[in-house]
TrEMBL record:
InterPro entries: Crypto/Photolyase_N_sf (IPR036155), DNA_photolyase_N (IPR006050), Rossmann-like_a/b/a_fold (IPR014729). Residues 1-48 form the Photolyase/cryptochrome alpha/beta domain. The lineage of its organism: Eukaryota, Viridiplantae, Streptophyta, Embryophyta, Tracheophyta. This is Photolyase/cryptochrome alpha/beta domain-containing protein. Signal peptide: none annotated.
């Protein structure tokens, strides 16, 4: 799994949360996972 898809150590997400906190607004995260796609297999998601 690449860093941009993680919750931990995701610099863009950390920055977004910081900006949302400064503006006193909520943050929403959406992730689209296609089970039967050409991408990573189930084992790639086990460490998440």
């Amino acid at each position: 799994m690449v860093r941009d898809q993680r919750v931990k150590d995701n610099w863009a997400l950390i920055h977004a949360v910081d900006q949302a906190n400064k503006a006193n607004v909520p943050i929403v995260v959406a992730f689209n996972l296609l089970i039967n796609s050409w991408g990573p297999k189930q084992g790639n998601w086990d460490s998440c």
